[in-house]
Amino acid sequence: MSAFDNARIAPRIGLSEEQAQLLNIAESFCRDKSPVDKVRVLIDDEDGFDAALWDEIAELGWLGIGVPENYGGIGLGMAELVPLVEHMGRSLMNTPFVPTVLAAQAVLRGGAEAQKEEYLPQIAAGAAASLALCEDHADWNLQNLGVTATLKDGALDLSGKKYLVLHAATAQLVLASVALDGQPALVIIPADALAGRITREKIIDDTQRAFALDLDGLTLPEAALMPVELAVEALAHIEQAGALLWAADMCGGAYACIDYTLDYLKTRKQFGKLIGSYQALKHSIVDAHQAYEKARSHLYSAAHVFGEQGEGDMAVHMAKAEAGEAYSFAADRAIQFHGGFGFTYDCDAQLYRRRAIMGCALFGDARYHRRKIAALMF
Amino acid sequence: MSDSEMHYDEQDLTAFSETATAWFAENTPRDVDFMLPLTFMEVGTDQQFNFLRDWQNKVYEAGYLGAHWPKEYGGGGLHPKFQDAATRAMAQARTPIMLNAIGLNWTGPLLLDRGSEEEKQKYINGILSAETIWCQGFSEPENGSDLGNAQTRAVKDGDDYVINGSKIWTTQGNYADYMILLARTNPDAENKYKGLSFFLAPMKGADVKGGSVETVPIKKLTGEYGFTQTFFTDARISADCLMGAEGEGWLIAMQTLEYERGARAGQAGGHVMMMSDPSDIIRLAREAKLNGKPAIDDPAVQEELVALMTEARALGLNSRRDKIRPLAQDRPMSLALGSKLASTDFYQRLNAFAITLQGTRAAYYVGDGSAHDNGLWQRGYLNSFSATIGGGTSQIQRNIIGEHVLGLPKS
């Protein structure tokens, strides 16, 4: 313990053996499978990801990590997903991994037994899935719902439009949040019902794919409705799980973009000296690095206490706020420190900066999460 | 023996921790009628010094200081986790600080790691009991951040060295019995670093065989004392005071700084700074009024408070994460070398922010009845610069992290 440690503040952090193993595997897997030239090739691909890579991820069992064994998964939890998503963020890997595992969490927490038995094994085996949560009010509160469902004669009539549905075009099922009799509810929309209803959105992050989903006039059987009494708790869980995984992606991205910038600072010369020897640049990248280290500590603390009443929520809010700010600052400086090259599309700094903005836009930015903490604390 | 080789019983640790908590609850002095220093760098009066020396001795005698140092030199011979538990109990009870910080945190571990058997026998016990007080003589008036350029001379003369020169920012210099001294033994060495040697130099008594060692207190920006400038005038000390060999001074000084910066373990434990923490500033934000309402009602204040609390938590998490190897190996030494910068900078901003919660009362200082918490935050802010400047300024820390952690070229 150094003299500068405050021994009175003793927040918890830990790493399970499974997390440590996955961290190790994910590091080399993501580095090998998602070099940046491949990331750039996929930017021009309609689906935006490599189907063969998706199959490999499914074969590794990663889609079933958060799914209990009796539903075809391997029965670990959100904590074990964090090292994987962190390394996906480092390598800017893009697949429907995060929306798919979040959809599995929604089914797990909000689904009826029959729904869990039907959908969880499919997802664990490789069926991509997604969530339709966002609306045009742009609110991060998942219970602010303008899209409605009406139950009549055993059928669900949907009305309204959802936005930012990630990888909807390749999803086998999409879970949408709706208001049913003024109460939050979740409905399961199979791929065939999505046909003709999705439109690709132009988003800031070219490595990802998002779609608007028009639900006007869609009718689903009543069996598509997940139990209403579980919806509020399921949405709260998705909000936490989503924030945790995006914090992981952004922590990974922050590390990678600092690394990318360091390479430049160590090789680029101006006025006869390596630019990394200038303190104006050195001190600023150190600040970015220090912010990243703090964010990563929060990330693994949040993973460790995830799901605990009070403490778990607080840790996730902190992790998401810090990861968003650390990534945004590091990537902002990455562009600046690459000078003229930084202003070009060829420089990878923009990939990181755009993904950081996307990561903050999903499941709440730093200010939003700090407001949540303030509400818990004051 | 390294920590990992040493075994301990979890139940013993829990029991030790509980006993320590109870002991500090019972023995922490509560009715002190004068202002106690918040850090070891603020010991400005004899009253404070004597009080803290007695307190450290009492804690040591109870077994809560150096609990993991070897028994043969006066330690407790336990696993380091026991001392960590005692330190936590101490901090949580908000006890007065441990006085002999330079001895406990810098000199002690240095001696245990690389001192001779004789040096360990001679010095370790006194460090723990506060019988012998240590100070550090690295910085000089003309050589602050550029330590390698130190010019204080040590000239070998028979069985003695004769010291001439001046050191500055000597914490507790006027009370110290010994100084860890960086002095130049060879001005003609092939480079400035190789001309330096490291001494365990007496400051007073018969061990100063001739000449003089004088200390002049420095009045700090707070108006208080705590540092001295130290003048060596033909001060004659035994050649035995040389640690290691001539020319190894820079190496040993760098190792000392690693203990100071928390990059190396082995410190005796015990808290040497009273840290204000989120609960203190939240209390202030509830009590202090801004625009006629409690400061905490202001959403902008709330957001800043949350950001500060989040940061305070990150500092604690960082030092815990540093011990979880798979989470600390991307950039080795990063968390350890970054901790001084992160924490001193944080406490400075925390105190500065606290002042802004006080409206017109921000204007008051220690001793005025209108001051919030008797000027604690104002004084804390001014004092916080001792940590962002001393022990390598925050700017030097950024160079160190940039070069040693991130691998950037030297500035």
Proportion in helices of chain B: 40-55%
Biggest beta-sheet profile of chain A: 6 strands, mixed
Using the coordinates shown, work out and report the CATH topology of the largest domain in chain B.
Butyryl-Coa Dehydrogenase, subunit A, domain 1
Termini separation of chain A comes to 31 Å
Going by CATH, the homologous superfamily of the largest domain in chain B would be Acyl-CoA dehydrogenase/oxidase, N-terminal domain
Total strand segments of chain B? 10
> Mean pLDDT across all residues of chain A, rounded?
96
Strand content of chain B: 15-25%
Task: Summarize the SSE layout with pairings.
The complex is a heterodimer of chains A (378) and B (411).
Chain A: H1 17-33, H2 36-43, H3 51-59, H4 78-90, H5 97-110, H6 113-125, E1 129-132, E2 148-152, E3 155-159, E4 161-166, E5 173-180, E6 183-190, H7 191-194, E7 198-200, E8 210-214, E9 219-221, H8 228-267, E10 269-270, E11 273-274, H9 279-305, H10 311-337, H11 339-342, H12 349-361, H13 366-377
Parallel strand pairs in A: 1-5, 2-5
Antiparallel strand pairs in A: 2-3, 3-9, 4-8, 5-6, 7-8, 10-11
Chain B: H1 10-27, H2 46-62, H3 80-92, H4 101-114, H5 117-129, E1 134-137, E2 153-157, E3 160-171, E4 178-184, E5 196-202, E6 210-218, E7 227-238, E8 242-243, H6 249-260, H7 278-287, E9 289-290, E10 293-294, H8 299-321, H9 334-355, H10 376-389, H11 394-405
Parallel strand pairs in B: 1-4
Antiparallel strand pairs in B: 2-3, 3-7, 4-5, 5-8, 6-7, 9-10
Helix pairs in contact in B: 1-3, 4-5, 4-6, 7-8, 8-9, 9-10, 9-11
Describe the 3D structure:
The complex is a heterodimer of chains A (378) and B (411). In chain A, the strands form 3 sheets. In chain A, strands 1, 2, 3, 5, 6 and 9 form a 6-stranded mixed sheet that branches. Chain A has a 3-stranded antiparallel sheet with strand order 4-8-7, with no helix packed on it. In chain A, strands 10-11 form a two-stranded antiparallel ribbon. In chain A, a hairpin with a 2-residue loop joins strand 5 and strand 6. In chain A, helix 4 packs antiparallel against helix 9 and helix 5 runs antiparallel to helix 8. Chain A is of the alpha+beta class. Chain A is built from 13 helices and 11 strands. Chain B is built from 11 helices and 10 strands. In chain B, the strands form 3 sheets. Chain B has a 4-stranded mixed sheet. In chain B, helix 4 packs antiparallel against helix 5 and helix 8 runs antiparallel to helix 9. Chains A and B meet through helix 1, helix 8, strand 11, helix 9 and helix 10 of A and helix 3, helix 8, helix 9 and helix 11 of B.
